[in-house]
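New to this. Help decode both lines:
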Amino acid sequence: MPIHSDDSINIKLENFYTVQVQPGIVKLIVSIWNEFNIERIYLTRSQEQIIQLQMNRSKLSLTRPTLLLIFFLTLLAAPSAALAGAWCLQQGSLYSKLSYSQYFTVDTYDKHGDKHRNPDGSNFHDQNVTWYAEYGLLDHLTTFVSLPYKQLRSHYRLREDDEVKHTTSSYNGPGDLELGLKLCLFEKPVVLSAQVLTKVAWLYDGHEKVPPGNNQNDYEIKVLVGRSLWPFPGYCGAELGYRWRTNDPSDEYRYLLEVGVNFTKKLSGRVKLDGIKSVQNARLPATPAPRTDAYVDYETGRVVKTTYDPAHSTAGFANPSLGIEYDLAKLELTLGYQVTRRWSIEGTYTGYPYGENIAAGDQYSLALVYFFTR
């Protein structure tokens, strides 16, 4: 929405407090603001001080150096960084994301990290709609929630004595609910935050033929670091945490690396490596000896031979994307487009470049994002 020289505006700083720019100062940026229809500017304190210094020196005149400086600061400031891992939302702000995802797998990583076809030629398909939201309780305290609704279909073969039966099972319903809090500790020289999360299995009974989760609760603590790459229009972040898993599954080390960039005023992208490393303290059940199996791949006409070691793989049951004791790395590639001032869309491809004792696969997602700030 265009502004006028008699309006006051708010400049959003990196740590989410607001500086109000009075009408006289607005004259310096009104022409650029209206031309590019910019809704908000995210700046570090040092950038804001530079602007204030130039404003004072210019004595409210629209000099070319001042206009160029404000133009590049506005264009290079990265709104996506404000919603990255380590940053907290301003009090009263809301970030809401509704995503649709499809995950499909016919492969399993063994205990050595080698990829094989799923035991007995099984395949697994997960379609889900997930709602994720963050809300700024205070300027330095953000709460978040994640709730998926899943449609799962698992096709596998059951071996009973010398007979092999083809079985297809499905599940439609909610998955694990995640709730958390994020506290921003400081913003200089990097943004540093601490986060706690709990994952609870309250919304399903645990006796499903295709389980949407491990039917147990998790508790996680994590440290998050973020930094703006200004004057480059992007940001980077890292996370490191520990997840306690109740009942049988092993505890986990959690790590994440992320880089984001604004290609244009509306088009952005990010790359994220999200990893899990098992602590190797699961309570594994007794399992039979390994077996070798062969079946005909009807798509190629070839005979496929697989070796299944139940003692070291938890991906052989109805939901191979779940695990008791496993390592996994997920690589996310995302493109985002800002449709309006508050709405944007995202498309994401997620690959599984490395794992042990867990299913491999590919995931595609589309998301609708809404962002509101006071």
Observations:
- DSSP finds four helices and 19 strands in the chain.
- The domain at 82-372 is CATH 2.40.160.40 (Porin).
- The CA atoms of residues 226 and 299 lie 47 Å apart.
